[in-house]
Amino acid sequence: MRANEVADGIYRLCANIGSEVLFEGIWPLPKGASMNSYLVKGKDVAIIDGVGDWDGVPETLYAQLDQLGVKAEDIRYVIINHTEPDHTGWLRSFSSMNHDFEVLATARGVELAKAFFGLDVAFRAVKSGDSVDLGNGKRLVFEEIPNVHWPDTMATFETSTGTLLCCDAFGTFGAIGEAFCDDQLDAAQLEIFEREALRYYANIVGRFSQQVINAIDKVSKLDVRIVAPGHGPIWRRNPERIIRLYQRLASYAKGPARPLVTVLWGSMYGNTRKTLEPLLDGIAEEGVDAVVYQVPQSHIGDILASAWESTGIALAMPTYEYQMFPPMAVILDELGRKSVKGKLAMRTGSFGWSGGAQKELDEILERRHMGWHFVDPVEFRGAPTVDTLEQVRRCARQLARQVRESALPDSVF
Ligand SMILES: Cc1cc2nc3c(=O)[nH]c(=O)nc-3n(C[C@H](O)[C@H](O)[C@H](O)COP(=O)(O)O)c2cc1C
After folding, report:
1. Distance in Å, CA 116 to ligand 1 centroid
2. DSSP letter string over 128-151?
3. Whose C-alpha in 274, 332, 356, 403 is 20 to 30 A from the C-alpha of 146?
4. Per residue in 74-133, pLDDT tens?
5. How far apart are CA 210 and CA 199, in angstroms?
6. How far apart are CA 109 and CA 173, in angstroms?
7. Residues with CB under 6 A from ligand 1
8. What are the structural domain ranges in the chain?
9. Model ipTM?
10. Contact 121/99 with Cβ under 8 angstroms?
11. 265, 267, 268, 315: which to mutate for ligand 1, most atoms within 8 A of CB?
């Protein structure tokens, strides 16, 4: 992998993460992911963010520094936009190669970097508006964007080129090959990265959507000509494209999103499964699309992405030991933890003698402050009758109609 010039005097260094890795130990990466680091060369040299410390990853970074003719000891400033180890793990080995550099981060970032790495170097806490002059026209200005995605997060803005080095903000999953910028990716590749942006957003930053909106407000006051995130491609031809996408994804936190229903179902002996057909028919009859996930067979990372962009959620699951089919309870709790809020919803499912699934569902929704709006549930004993199936279809139509009416039009952004 080669270092790439992003703009005059600004270079992207990169290590990819393979599809065999679960990001944060949780989230599948079917298309991998990239960890982007940036080198800014003025009279002085600064490196902004870095890579993890596993399996020879820092060595990938050092090989790219070699290509640029930069030695470790040439680096005067290490700028930590965000202390998460996928961007900072390399500092352990770097600090054994260079003993004379200064670490710049927010006050919170300094505190975290000391706790994680205990580096014996100079630290400088910076705040919004502070800057570093690297000479030769290169000037870095800092803007705090807390909680996108850790509390320490800031963005670094290089003024001469209008390059926003924003770490986790405006990132996507997806490994990067030779083409590293939007101006080198064709329409199909860009669409793939936008889908990867949705999965990244829902899995990693969705919970911090208000902070994302605050961050967008802040950076919109800068003359941003290039968006250079810590993950995914650089947006140089059309930086607005990724900013607008993030604005849209953040807005989904209120509930209304695409005219789409995510259907989550689980069944032990097939009684609840029988409701799937009328449920999907009902949604389709209203001209609304549905995406179906079986639980527990589907991964929460995929379900979360789908739920995030859906205006409606349909649940089909039976009662199990006086509560909900357990894997569905796990999924719903995680949707709550990740702030999938304000959705339109329906529920159906079989029980044998007491019921109980609905009670646990209500508890989870309340505990996680999810604010979902349900049409009346269709709960039935044993196998569904013809009448029950018809009721499910009607219920699904009602949900789909509401979804169609509440979904956000594409033209909003
Ligand atoms: C292990 C197990 C525990 C169950 N616990 C309850 C229960 O507490 N209350 C109840 O009403 N039904 C209970 N049932 C009955 C199921 O809810 C019922 O068989 C239902 O039809 C299963 O739906 P399915 O065919 O979609 O899996 C239980 C069934 C199993 C297998």
Report:
1. 48
2. TT-EEEEETTEEEEEEE-TTSSST
3. 332
4. 999 999 999 999 999 999 899 999 999 999 999 999 999 999 988 888 999 999 999 999
5. 18
6. 24
7. 267-273, 318-322, 350-356, 382
8. 4-252, 260-404
9. 0.99
10. yes
11. 268
